[in-house]
Amino acid sequence: MTFERSHEYLLSLLKELLKFPHETEWVEFKYNNDDPQMIGEYISALANAAALLGKKSAYMVWGVENESHAVHGTTFKPSTSRHRQQELESWLLQKTSPKIHFRFFEFTAVNELPVVILEIQAASHAPVQFDGTEYIRVGSYKKKLREFAEKERELWRVFDKTPFEQNIAAENVSAEQVLKLLDYPAYFDLIDLALPEGREGILNALESDRLIEPSDSGQWHITNLGAVLFARRLQDFRRLGRKAVRLILYRGNNRTETIRELEGSKGYAVGFEGLIDYIKTQLPSNEQIGEAFRQEVPMYPELAVRELVANMIIHQDFNLTGTGPMVEMFDQRMEITNPGTPLVDTRRFLGSPPQSRNESLASFMRRIGICEERGSGIEKVVSQTELYQLPAPLFEHMERHTRAVLFAHKSLNEMDKEDRVRACYLHCCLKYIHREPMNNPSIRKRFGIEEQNRSQASGIIRDTIKEGLIRLYDAEVGSKSRRYIPFWV
């Protein structure tokens, strides 16, 4: 997201850039050179150099003498310039890949001399190329990136090391705009601190949690972490609008008829409890599920819903464009989908060491109590579905997405073989991480099978072994005392 720049802001930025004793690798001074091809190549070179140096933006300045940095003014007017029958800015954008944000600013400096500043967003996920070629700054010279293999390798290392949360959602915004865009009272409420009396105290607190950071011009950048957690409206941030959670309710068990479709607008920390409350109001109830319940209970355990929705938010791949987290509710199941392929095999969601794409986001969500401690979320989901004697959750890996599915209650006779095998496997994983044995009695308890029907439990165990999901732990003991462990142990 960018904002209109005031004349005062542009003068302040120019003053800061002129302080550098010579051209840096992320700032270029020109007098009147307005060759479009040259400008495009510099957009690539400066964007890549800024990323390499950890800068959020790079700049080209017209109207300033290169050596002395004296302001002489320029005749270059990008707002009226055209190239090949196109507006200059449109032509440059068309030739730039991947698309980054850049913008020309025309204003008058000292003695009413015209100056132009081109503000360029730093490369973020891949080197920026212009007209099919990637460029880089080497000292004060513009070079082709492929000619400097070490710089290219270093640039890719920077992309690999820079998490999504540290990138910028809104650049060079005023303190007033920060407080307008972010729900800062909710931030202090969620971290259980009193709201500071002055604006400076508020900004310092937001900065300490890396929700905002100071810009080169003396204003503020709002980080992706700050925006996705505390935006009053995610749609106010150009690259994050599609990351709002969508909730879709269907009639029946397919997507033929939609009852309602809602799209959230608030940041995840601000809007999470409201989302969970709304989901709860849409869920029907079940009565007397198993021996554990003698009253009406929600169709799905609230803790399981909370954990899966939190996981959807935390583990999504923010670099996938045109898609976002989604909750779909059918008559007999709930599907919770996030962009991004899983970091571990879906069969190892329970029992594998935890991994996260977005560690800062996950850490903050744990800190404010939105999700459970690291690595315990799926364990609680499986435990809750067993307690409610529901079919086991299903975890699916699709082409670009990960999906978790909760199912409404079914009796054992209503479950198909796939349901039973999945439940047996996850029960075995749960028992293993609890340091307890899985055996015929524990399976009977999981499915509500009477002791005289122990052969039915044995059949479920045999089917799960045939699928390669569990194996016998102690073959030498009698069949009534045998224990089983997951295939990965």
Outline the secondary-structure elements.
Blueprint lengths: L6 H12 L8 E4 L5 H17 L4 E6 L19 E2 L2 E2 H8 E2 L4 E7 L5 E8 L7 E2 L2 E6 L2 E4 L4 H13 L6 E6 L1 H7 L2 H7 L8 H10 L3 E3 L5 E4 H7 L15 E6 L5 E7 L4 H15 L2 E3 L8 E3 L3 H13 L11 E4 L3 E7 L19 H9 L9 H11 L6 E4 L3 E7 L9 H17 L6 H8 L6 H13 L3 E3 L11 E3 L3
Parallel strand pairs: 1-2, 14-18
Antiparallel strand pairs: 2-7, 3-4, 5-8, 6-7, 8-9, 9-10, 11-13, 12-13, 14-15, 16-17, 18-19, 19-21, 20-21, 22-23
Helix pairs in contact: 2-4, 9-10, 10-12, 13-15, 14-15
Measured between the Cα atoms of the first and last residue, the distance is: 48 Å
Please give the number of β-strands.
23
The best one-word shape is: elongated
Strand content: 15-25%
> Biggest sheet, open or closed, and with what strands and sense?
6 strands, mixed
- CATH fold group of the largest domain: Heat Shock Protein 90
Output mean pLDDT. 90
- Gross CATH architecture of the largest domain: 2-Layer Sandwich
Report on this structure.
This protein has helices spanning 7-18, 36-52, 88-95, 149-161, 175-181, 184-190, 199-208, 224-230, 268-282, 302-314, 359-367, 377-387, 417-433, 440-447, 454-466; strands spanning 27-30, 57-62, 82-83, 86-87, 96-97, 102-108, 114-121, 129-130, 133-138, 141-144, 168-173, 212-214, 220-223, 246-251, 257-263, 285-287, 296-298, 326-329, 333-339, 394-397, 401-407, 470-472, 484-486. It starts with 6 loop residues before the first helix and ends with a strand. The mean pLDDT is 90. The chain has four domains: 7-162, Methyltransferase, Cobalt-precorrin-4 Transmethylase, Domain 2, CATH 3.30.950; 169-240, no CATH class; 244-409, Heat Shock Protein 90; 413-489, Arc Repressor Mutant, subunit A (Orthogonal Bundle). The strands form seven sheets. Strands 15-14-18-19-21-20 form a six-stranded mixed sheet, with helices on one face. It has a four-stranded mixed sheet with strand order 1-2-7-6. Strands 5-8-9-10 form a four-stranded antiparallel sheet. The chain has 489 residues and is α+β, with helices and mostly antiparallel strands. It is built from 15 helices and 23 strands.
